[in-house]
Each structure stands twice: as structure tokens, then as C-alpha cells.
Amino acid sequence: MPTFLKLLPEGLTVSDRTDSQDGFASVVVDDGRGRTLVQINVQPDMGGVADELYGDATTLPDGTLLATTQQPGEKGGAGVVWWTADTMRPDGLRVVVSAFNSGAQSTPATRPEPALTMEQLTAVATSPEWLKLQQ
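Request: output the structure for the sequence above.
Response:
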């Protein structure tokens, strides 16, 4: 959770923290224009599923695979959208960061888009800070 919080963009009020200690964490952030649920999942040794998950991914200069999606939410919240940056490093470290335009997937949207842009989600997912956790 400390790495996740450190990588969030400045100017956000953070609340409703959840840290399951198994690589998954979430927070609700607000930039003054509505709440956004942000989730992260960090999974080591996932290289075996790279072909299955990253068929249409972009390969970054360091060999990291990056897949981004923007889709409707799937938990029933009216008007909820779900944006994701899903990465896998050459060593198999997978980091997935998602944001929703609501404080919870099952509640109505509080804003047109998530508080974090796709570029900001990608920056969190591709940060070299995640590599330090493996050392």
C-alpha cells in the first residue's frame, strides 16, 4: 500500500483504503469533482500467462507489455466506466491498475470519467518502484 499511495497523482484526497496483503489494494480518491475507486493488483511470476493476456499489447522499450482498456463497469453501478492499465515486466511481474468513475463499482457514477487519466494509470503501473519490491 505505501508504494501504491506514493505513486498516486498529487491533488487527490484519499479515503476508504483496503489492503488485502496478497498484492491487492484499493483506495477511493477525490479531486473535488467526484469519487473514484482505484484498485491495484501486483502479482509476481505471471509470465506463463503473458500470451493469453497480452495478445494485442504494446511492448515498451524495456520489454514491459502494456494493455489498456476502457469499458463499462460490470458490477451494476449506473453509468460506471472501468479504465485499466495492465502491465507485465519481462521477469513476469504483473501490475494492474484500474479506476472507476464512482467510489464503488456497484454504485452510480459520480463523474463522467475516473479522476485518473489513462496516462496516469499507465504511469502507476509502469513505475520502476514496483521492481524494488522484488529485491
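The first helix runs from residue 2 to 7.
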